Amino acid sequence: MDKKTYATPDGNALIASYAWQPLLINTLMMPKGFHDEAHQHPWHQIIFPSRGLLRCSTGTHQFYIPHHRALFIPAHTRHESRALQDTTFIAVYLNPEFLIRLPTSSQPIEVTPFFRELILKLRQSVLRDQVQPPGILRLLAVLEDELNAEKDSSLELPMPQDRRLAPIVDALLSDPGSTKTLAQWARQTGATERTLSRVFQKEIQLTFPQWRQRLRLMTAMTLLEQGLPVQDAAHEVGYQSVSAFIEAFRLAFKLTPQQFKQQRSIE
Questions:
Q1: Is pLDDT at 58 greater than 70 in this prediction?
Q2: What mean pLDDT comes out for the span 170-176?
Q3: Higher-pLDDT residue of 189, 10
Q4: How many Å apart are CA 232 and CA 220, to the nearest integer?
Q5: Per the domain annotation, does 90 fall within a domain?
Q6: Which residues does 147 contact at the CB level (< 8 Å), separation at least 6?
Q7: Whether residues 57 and 78 fall in one domain
Q8: Would 1 be classed as within a structural domain?
Q9: CATH number of the domain that 194 lies in?
Q10: CA quadruple 209, 78, 70, 105: dihedral positive or negative?
Q11: pTM to 2 decimals?
Q12: Cα–Cα distance between 216 and 173 in angstroms, integer?
């Protein structure tokens, strides 16, 4: 199919036009800064960037999806996306009537070489007019197994909903490099440090330092994708030591910042 600019109308229109099919695939383009407003699909969706970087939000979580990762979104899940760079992505729509063993919540996917080739095989197999080739159900069964593998939580940023944490979360989203401690936040918000720490862990199963580090690393990923040098990205998100930043990035994403910058697209 021809590449489009806007994801939402095309996705749901495509599903309405081919509602009997088990699988549909579209390739979409979003210019940097484009905001695909909150919407939902009646089918499951896989978002797989071949170029660029997307930030997707489901309200309770934010996901940063570079071109070597993917995101699974269950049917009827309200979500919105913003292109942090000029982005091209493969949108795979999966008919729930054909797939019953899938995750019930949105989750990032580590794109192994096998998963990458499987998605490309599906894209090549589905012809221009969404004609389904023989054997498509066997490929879908393999995809179902892959989607039920252990998820990659490194690109997932749970968003606390407790109102006591709102000013902290909003401030750090605006300035991930802030070095303000939880004790300082406690004095500013009127809650005790112990209370804030407990609420963080109860709501998102992460400590405050763990959540802030994940936010910093995701923000750094955006800066690296924009071409910022590793040292500048590290300092921008609050790391005084570049080596500490490189090690934290490597542990989170299984590659160094420089390797991330050198990742090739799949177009």
A1: yes
A2: 92
A3: 189
A4: 9
A5: yes
A6: 46, 72, 102, 103, 109
A7: yes
A8: no
A9: 1.10.10.60
A10: positive
A11: 0.82
A12: 9
Asked if 189 and 164 count as a contact pair (C-beta separation under 8 A), the reply is yes
What is the pLDDT at residue 132?
66
Asked whether residue 56 is assigned to any structural domain, the reply reads yes
Count: domains in the chain: 2
Confidence bin at 2 (pLDDT 50/70/90): very low
Judged by DSSP in three states, 56 sits in strand
124 and 88, same structural domain?
yes
Neighbours of 27 (CB within 10 A): 16
Segment 111-122 mean pLDDT: 86
- Residue from 172, 176, 147 nearest 235 by CA: 176
Domain extent, residue 125, equals: 7-154
Same domain? 170 vs 131: no
Question: Token digits for 169?
Answer: 């979360």
> Could you tell me how far CA 153 lies from the centroid of its own chain?
10
CB 88 within 8 A of CB 51: yes
**pLDDT grade, residue 4 (50/70/90)?**
very low
Q: Verify that 149 and 165 share a domain, yes or no.
A: no
- Residue 124 pLDDT greater than 90, yes or no: no
pLDDT at 264 over 70: no
Task: Note whether residue 73 is domain-resident.
Answer: yes
Given a cut of 70, whether residue 266 has pLDDT beyond it is: no
Same domain, 178 and 148: no
139-154 as b/e, with b when 16 or more CB fall inside 10 Å?
bbeebeebbeeebbeb
| 16 & 141 share domain | yes
